[in-house]
Write a structure and sequence with these properties.
The protein is an alpha+beta fold and 178 residues long. The protein has two domains: 43 residues, no CATH class; 119 residues, Immunoglobulin-like (Sandwich), CATH 2.60.40. The protein contains three helices and ten strands. A hairpin with a 2-residue loop joins strand 4 and strand 5. The longest helix is centred in the first third of the chain and has 15 residues. The relative contact order is 0.13. The model has no long low-confidence stretch (mean pLDDT 86). The structure holds zinc ion (ZN). The site of zinc ion (ZN) has 6 residues, from helix 3.
């Protein structure tokens, strides 16, 4: 088909942004479906812009420590996980971060805890991620479940930055000693 396409760019933009009426859309779709290369190219070129807006930069939250409890190691207990440290943080009076550290074998710990959104439902933090990094290099990552709990197993002793990402909010706790 060597017919010249008469559909202008503005119409393609209207189509992609859902501004065309039913009839206009149907006839344009028929035209594209008939194999108009120019319209197809424009849709591909514009499609990326229209359907994938730039992600907003994550909102960085300040994190304050509320509590840090170092548990005494019970003598002579072997084989059981030992709760060795519990820390609680708060991010801008909005998010409460409870981190418990259990040494499962010498030099290896499980990091578990809970993320709570203040004044929100338990499941509001569901799907958030908790990642450990060492000097910017990702080390381990855990996913927050539907009641706000997370668990990261097999973390070697070290100093880590913990990043909690909830939707577009990001809270970082620097220099946690494991
Ligand atoms: Zn066309």
């Amino acid at each position: 088909m060597a017919t010249v396409c008469e559909v202008d760019l503005a119409r393609i933009v209207e189509y992609l942004t859902g501004q065309l009426g039913e009839d206009e859309r149907t006839s344009l779709e028929a035209h594209i479906g008939a194999g108009c290369a120019q319209c197809a190219e424009r849709i591909i070129a514009l499609g990326g812009m229209v359907s994938e807006p730039e992600p907003e930069p994550a909102q960085q939250m300040l994190v304050q420590p509320l509590m840090d409890t170092q548990m005494p190691q019970p003598a002579g207990v072997r084989g059981a996980a030992v709760l060795s440290r519990r820390r609680v943080y708060e991010a801008e009076s909005k998010i409460c971060i409870d981190i418990q550290q259990n040494e499962t074998e010498p030099g290896i710990s499980t990091i578990e805890g809970q993320i709570l959104i203040k004044g929100g439902d338990l499941d509001e933090a569901a799907g958030a991620s908790v990642s450990l990094s060492d000097a910017g290099n990702p080390v381990a990552k855990g996913q927050v479940d539907e009641i706000g709990d997370f668990s990261i197993v097999g973390v070697p002793a070290g100093i880590y930055d913990v990043t909690i990402t909830i939707g577009s909010m990001e809270a970082m706790i620097k220099g946690i000693e494991v």
